[in-house]
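Human: I would love a firmer grasp of how sequence relates to backbone shape in proteins. Take your time, and here it is.
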Amino acid sequence: MRIRRAALDELPALQDIERAAGGPFRELGMADIADDEPPALDLLDAYRRAGRAWVAVGEEDRPRAYLIAEPVDGALHIEQISVHPGAAHRGVGRALLAYAADRAREEGLTGLTLTTFAEVPWNAPYYLRIGFHVLEEAELTPGLRTIRAAEAGHGLDRWPRVCMRRALDGP
């Protein structure tokens, strides 16, 4: 897989990836997450125009995964990372995170942050394995508190959620 910036005409494909990636949540009793609509095209385009929407593409140069992010309180916050189930378990998500970390370093940011489900195997337990740690309530920055409040307003707190951070080491 190769990682590059998302193109405008690929944004509908990112929505398709999101829908497909939501399917496994149904097996965990999280049908509302599985059925949740992906980010709107105008939101995806805002990330793209800001240079913060990246795709992992295969030999056919078709997106198989994507990541959108924005700076929040000195870190690059991963707003969404989704891998199509057909590309899962191949290190694609890890490669996207490494790419995002490189971009964050270039901007002088100090880490990666994200919010995720605490008990979903491919969420918090996965991120713990690749170097993230759970932030305690007292460690949350103002921006992360705002993000968590918005998530709660969307009903995501029906399932346990956590904020996580991974420091960026060196250049």
